[in-house]
Design brief:
By secondary structure, the protein is mostly helical. It has 7 helices and no strands. Helix 2 packs parallel to helix 7 and helix 5 packs across helix 6. The longest helix is centred in the C-terminal third of the chain and has 29 residues.
Length: about 170
């Protein structure tokens, strides 16, 4: 499959999964970013999640631009993590990159909600409350990222191994 076809399929998956009903933050955007970094190019790693976010945000709705920017930046950083993982593809680096992307998303976006939002006091206790209240969303993000990265990487590797008779790229 040509890279552009794979990229379009990933964008479509991300849009559909984000627009259809799902648990909060259990979506494949981070996984698409990480996968793009691992298997595609730098441009795809950063652009795939951003295109999926912009298109799906047309359906879901836009919100405070500063908070949106932090979400978009978080996914772009996850794509860059995928580029780092691609240099040493192993199960441990794929899982580690997935967890790191989820943690960065949690830290960056909730800091942004605290700074630019009105839900929390603009002091240390408000910042702490912002992170504490976001723990259920972090859990869903982490589980969603692990699920979708496992699905995408596992499928890609299985296709390469069984159908194309390539040696597995991700080793244990």
């Amino acid at each position: 499959m040509k890279k552009i076809h794979l990229a379009l399929a990933l964008i479509a998956l991300a849009i559909v999964a984000r627009v259809l009903p799902h648990p909060a933050n259990f979506a494949p955007i981070g996984a698409v970013a990480l996968f793009g970094g691992i298997y595609l190019t730098r441009r795809y790693a950063v652009v795939l999640p951003l295109i999926a976010m912009v298109i799906s945000d047309f359906f879901i709705g836009f919100y405070t631009w500063q908070i949106m920017a932090s979400v978009y930046i978080s996914f772009a950083l996850t794509g860059l993590i995928g580029l780092w993982v691609s240099k040493n593809k192993k199960l441990s680096t794929v899982v580690g990159g997935t967890v790191l992307g989820s943690i960065l998303f949690f830290l960056i976006t909730n800091f942004s909600v605290w700074v630019f939002g009105t839900m929390y006091a603009h002091d240390f206790s408000g910042l702490a409350q912002s992170y504490i209240m976001a723990i259920p969303f972090f859990r869903n993000s982490l589980l969603g990222d692990l699920f979708y990265v496992g699905l995408l990487v596992g499928t890609y590797e299985a296709i390469g191994y069984f159908l194309l008779k390539k040696e597995a790229v991700v080793t244990i």
